[in-house]
Design brief:
By secondary structure, the chain is an alpha+beta fold. The protein has helices at 46-53, 57-66, 84-109, and strands spanning 7-10, 13-16, 21-23, 29-31, 43-45, 72-74, 79-83. The protein is elongated and about 55 Å long.
Amino acid sequence: MRRIPSLLRQNGRIESQRNKLRQTVDNRITRRHWWQNRNMPRFLTLADVAEQLQINSPAAYALVRSGELKAIQVGGRGQWRVEEKMLEQYIEERYAEADRMIQQTKSKSV
């Protein structure tokens, strides 16, 4: 019998690699998003942002409401969306802030 490499057997059922289950840092089992191993979509939901930053959804919402993370509201229900480049910019700013804090600590200890 010929084996098809694009199919995987997990939990007693066959799934495509595209829908492969994965385990997160906090041991939740989730489905792999279609953009993993490819380009992310331009806009992300707050749930996607929370997963990327490994925080909970209320924390992601708090980042948006405080203005730390730039986002827009779209649709009739006002769903929040974060552009990919805004998330990358936020991450870069956090790294820069961490560097500043480390430099301040070093200069105080000298």
